[in-house]
Amino acid sequence: MRAWRVHELGEPKEVLKLEEIEGPGAPGPGEVVVEVEAAALNFFDILLCQGKYQERPDPPFTPGAEVAGTVVEVGEGVGIKPGTRVLATPPLPRGGYAEKVVAPAESGVFPIPEAMPYEKAAAMHIVYQTAYMGLHRRAGLEEGETVLVHAGAGGVGSAAIQVARAAGARVIATAGGPEKVKVCEDLGADVSLDYREEDFVDAVKQATGGRGADVIFDPVGGDVFDRSRRCVAFEGRILVVGFASGRIAEAPTNHALVKNYSVVGLHWGLYNKVMPEMVDNNHEALVDLYTSGGIDPLVHKTVPFGELPEALELLGSRKTHGKLVTSPRA
């Protein structure tokens, strides 16, 4: 089968090699083999290739954390039947940029509706789970509250806009440039701001009558976090989701005390280890939202499998919106 593999660390365009390798073989107890129809691209795949991610598998390895496809073989003790349409999270070192993958049935395989395109399923898992867990579990979002979503046109930001809207919240989104602002508007944001052209602090205060945002969804960090503290509401929650800016901000505790707000961390991946049942429950809730039209995973483009390194380079340039997806069939 074909698979993209990294033999030495570096930039994806330089170190990813498309190779013919042996298939995954028969699944072990509790495992399934999935024939991949679509695989999502994530920024941490770039970091994996560079050796800068928190997980550092020894080369050779195949990146790719989330795929969608069809179960073709099952191991002992697995209740999933061959032919089931699923999204899956194959573990390293044999990730999802391959024609077939092995994944643990209990914690890494989730059924998807028959009518859901594989590309949208592959684009849903990590970012929508992150948005749902963050807004509902960690921030305790309530209907009628105002949510400020930073980087609203990105993968996790676009998911957060939709999840917040589905919960009955008012959404203010920030993005860089008129095209991405339009993406936020199309996703349902009530107010969309170009942070390059206007001060989001003043705009949020104006849009909320001076109160500020009840929940701030921040995958950017750095200066964005620092400025977000100036427009968080009384008893608001700043949700720390990531550090796309490259700088990890510091949270002065005296400021949190004086303004009565909370700084709440979200490491979604840890729930897979500590509370995996919550991930299952969230998946069911997200599928229901998709089926009812409450969410619709935003796929920027499905790229040919042979152009994966260039697509990761494009993702790293931050010139895309939503999610990039590839397919071994394309």
3D architecture notes:
The chain has helices spanning 12-15, 43-50, 105-108, 118-138, 155-166, 178-187, 200-207, 223-228, 253-259, 268-274, 276-292, 308-316, and strands spanning 2-6, 16-20, 31-40, 67-74, 85-88, 100-104, 109-111, 146-149, 170-175, 191-194, 213-218, 232-240, 262-265, 299-304, 323-327. It is α/β, with parallel strands linked by helices. The model has no long low-confidence stretch (mean pLDDT 96). The protein is built from twelve helices and 15 strands. Helix 4 (118-138) packs across helix 5, helix 4 (118-138) packs across helix 11 (276-292) and helix 10 (268-274) packs across helix 11 (276-292). Strand 8 (146-149), helix 5 and strand 9 (170-175) form a beta-alpha-beta unit. The longest helix is centred in the middle third of the chain and has 21 residues, at 118-138. Helices cover 34% and strands 25% of the residues. The strands form three sheets. Strands 3, 4, 5, 6, 7, 14 and 15 form a seven-stranded mixed beta sheet that branches. Strands 10-9-8-11-12-13 form a six-stranded parallel beta sheet, with helices on both faces. The protein has a two-stranded antiparallel sheet with strand order 1-2. It folds into two domains: 2-111 and 298-327, Quinone Oxidoreductase, Chain A, domain 1 (Alpha-Beta Complex), CATH 3.90.180.10; 127-269, Rossmann fold.
